[in-house]
Design a protein that fits this description.
By secondary structure, this protein is an alpha/beta fold.
Length: 369
């Protein structure tokens, strides 16, 4: 049986975070999953090179507290992740977010995931799955997700955070190959199955979460939550129930189909059990669930697509460089121009835009879905 445990902390006070993490590990006994001297990859959510106050990445103080805790177990800690955006280098993103300094000052080593190369797996159907060889260079992984919504998968939690083990350019291509919630969730499950035996623990940053149109343009919401588990699927399932979702996300559906959601026990530190009410999901989510058999006419009349708010756009062109379908061109005025015939509605542009200038436009009928 897996264990999932939650504790509360009011803000990003590093000493308080460290104290709660220590108590949660003691409560569950997950600290027994480690041996002194092991080399552990700490894998935060570094979606993009954004400042901590934007709430897009795992908070640097949360990373620092986790590193310090793992060091008390006698572990060698390295920190790495592959950020979103086809051309974004991992070390640049780590430094911009503040994670680099936080990790190094706490006693970890930060390494560029690009230097490790890739290893390729084949699914039962023959699809090639590319994952960084960094997983072969460590004894185990500690997964450090950020609690956020996601326009494609509904939520981005522990299993989705494993997607950062895919090298940068391939992440963009996978969005092109697997553009729907069902197909992308299949891909996430494939990746998770390849790395799950390496994952020793999950430590979730839910102190300030993101609801609405996440994973980067949503609204910040203070939850004061820290979660840990020895199983990614277990904590994801427990969190979805805590958030009061009407139905499981497509990721959890795929994991249950593969029997990857184990039986688990939920524990609360000091009896502080919490239910989270009215957690806002992405505005495009119900549209994502329209069956494909309704045909192209329905898909044209009921859809959400990206547009540019020219008053916010800075002309950085990150949207164009990150588009897996090459559906964004730069117009004569220096602003993005969408080719909607090529656009696959993956919303990577919305996800990666640093100025929140990519908005989601709904057709008239979509408002009634």
């Amino acid at each position: 049986m897996a264990y999932v445990a939650f504790g509360k902390v009011e803000d990003y006070d590093e000493e308080k975070i460290l104290s709660v993490i220590e108590k949660l590990f003691s409560l569950t006994g997950i600290d027994r999953n480690f041996e002194p001297g092991e080399r552990i990859l700490l894998k935060p959510n570094v979606l993009a090179p954004r400042k901590a106050e934007m709430g897009i990445t795992t908070n640097p103080k949360f990373v620092s507290a986790t590193v310090k805790f793992l060091r008390t177990l006698g572990l060698e800690v390295i920190v790495s992740d592959s950020p979103g955006g086809a051309g974004t280098k991992s070390m640049f993103a780590m430094k911009e977010t503040g994670i680099y300094d936080a990790a190094v000052n706490a006693g970890a080593k930060v390494v560029p995931i690009e230097k490790f190369g890739i290893k390729t797996f084949k699914s039962d159907g023959g699809a090639k799955i590319h994952i960084s060889k960094i997983i072969d260079e460590v004894d185990g992984i500690v997964n450090l997700p950020k609690l956020k919504t996601h326009s494609l998968t509904l939520l981005t939690l522990a299993v989705k955070n494993c997607y950062g083990l895919v090298p940068g350019f391939m992440k963009a291509r996978y969005h092109f190959y697997y553009p729907t919630p069902r197909k992308f969730s299949w891909l996430l499950a494939e990746i998770y199955e390849r790395v799950r035996d390496k994952i020793r623990a999950v430590i979730l940053d839910g102190i300030v979460a993101m609801e609405g149109n996440g994973p980067s343009a949503g609204d910040l919401r203070k939850l004061g939550l820290i979660g840990i588990s020895d199983d990614c699927a277990a904590i994801d399932d427990a969190l979805e129930k805590m958030l009061g979702l009407d139905k499981p996300s497509p990721v959890i559906k795929e994991l249950k189909k593969r029997k990857l959601v184990p039986a688990y026990k939920v524990l609360w530190l000091n009896g502080e059990e919490t239910k989270i009410h009215d957690f806002a999901i992405p505005s495009n989510w119900k549209m994502r669930l329209i069956p494909s058999f309704l045909g192209t006419l329905a898909n044209r009349l009921i859809q959400i697509y990206p547009i540019v708010d020219e008053s916010l756009c800075t002309g950085c062109w990150e949207c164009a460089s990150s588009c897996p379908a090459n559906a964004i061109n730069i117009s004569s005025n220096g602003l993005p121009k969408f080719d909607y015939k090529r656009c696959i509605r993956c919303l990577c542009c919305h996800e990666i835009c640093p100025s929140k200038a990519i908005k989601l436009k709904r057709t008239f009928l979509t408002r009634f879905v």
